[in-house]
Amino acid sequence: MAVIQQTPVGRSDSFHALMDRVSDAAVLDRTVLVVGERGTGKELIASRLHFLSPRWEQVFVPVNCAAYTDAQLDILLFGESFNDGRNDVDGQFVRADGGTLFLNDIDTVSVRLQEKMLQVFEQGVVDPVGNPDTTPVNVRVIAAARGDLRRAVSENHFAQDLLDHLTFDVIPLPPLRDRPDDILALADHFGKKMAATLGADSFAGFTMDALGLLARQPWPGNVRGLRSVVERSVGQAFLSDETLSRPIERLILDPFEGAASLGAAPVSSDSPQEDMPIDETLDFNSRVMTFERGLIDKAMNAHSHHQGKAADALGLSYHAFRGLLRKHGLKK
Question: Which of 14, 145, 175, 264 falls between 20 and 30 A from 319, CA-CA?
């Protein structure tokens, strides 16, 4: 099945720097290790590395290594041969010949299979289960990991030789909490896609209170978590109004605790939206800029212009908050 290329979404400086990094790495026909927390979009970046590469017309084969037992992953990656008349099974290394193989969660692979992977890198061949012969392959490998592979090496859970092969280039993906500029842009993007999927006449976006709540979340699930909240909230709004002609005010942050309605539930006393009217004639980016500036000003005023305390109040790291100050011309 062909993999549909998706376009990453963002507007922050760190997002644009990441896209430049990916574009540069894509043209070099070497391995890349993508590292990041869950939900940061590692497979999306891997597919972009493939589709921007000289191999873009060839196959892109993603494998989630964590989803299989050791024996299953052995057969899936390297194939299996039979001596009883059954047809041999090609592994994903062979399927990806000429193209790109994406090995997600490579930090979960056993040391035994790491040794078999080394054979691919060092000799350009795979060793199918049950077959004494090897099969030559020409594959670009992109790997991804959540954990610290250098620490795994020191604890003898990962082979240093394999890590050396995987790290021609390393691309770290920042968590969403360090990309505050991207939260509202992603929410708008996922909202429009969900509305189109449901067949709604339009998508009026979210109310300013709802946008404020989205902006203040820590998003431990990163982009995947944000997408789930947006899609869930748009879906529930669609059940009440299939046109989605009004901005959505009801966010369902936790499906296990029910819906959190901003219209019914009191907003915390430190809510920075109380006195932030937004000109509805502005376009999306202008509204976001106005909204962000209001958040910054209110947090700074509430904490006597102490940047660290203002960052904490907004649920941002100090580095991310300083980035916002730079963006709005407030950092001297």
Answer: 145
**Is residue 272 predicted with pLDDT exceeding 80?**
no
Considering only CA atoms, which of 208, 198, 171, 179 is closest in space to residue 284? 208
User: CATH for 13-174?
Assistant: 3.40.50.300
| Calpha distance 49→55 (Å, rounded) | 10
Per-residue pLDDT at 54: 96
Rounded CA separation 18/8 (Å): 10
For the chain, residues classed under CATH 3.40.50.300 are 13-174
The Cα 270–Cα 312 span in angstroms is: 12
Nearest of 245, 222, 244, 227 to residue 188 by alpha carbon:
227
Amino acid at 118: L
pLDDT in tens, 57-89: 999 999 999 999 999 999 999 998 887 667 788
27 vs 24: CA distance, rounded Å: 6
- CATH class of the domain comprising 177-327: mainly alpha
Angle, CA of 188, 299 and 291, to the nearest 5°: 30
Q: Is 23 helix (H, G, I), strand (E, B) or coil?
A: helix
Strand 100-104's sheet: what is its strand order? 60-64, 100-104, 140-145, 32-35, 169-172
Q: Which two tokens stand for residue 303?
A: 């904490």
Residue type (1 letter), 265: A
Q: Please tell me the pTM assigned to this model.
A: 0.75
**CA atoms of 112 and 78, how far apart (whole Å):** 13
User: Under DSSP, is residue 143 helix (H, G, I), strand (E, B) or coil?
Assistant: strand
Share above pLDDT 70 across residues of the chain, in percent, rounded to a whole number: 89
Residues of the chain with CATH 1.10.8.60: 177-327
Closest CA to 140 of 239, 310, 25, 300: 25
Phi, psi (5° rounding) for residue 10? 175, 165
Q: Taking each helix axis from N to C terminus, what angle separates 208-216 and 284-302, rounded to the nearest 10 degrees?
A: 60
**Stated length of the chain:** 332
What one-character-per-residue DSSP string does 191-226 give? HHHHHHHHT-S----B-HHHHHHHHH---TTHHHHH
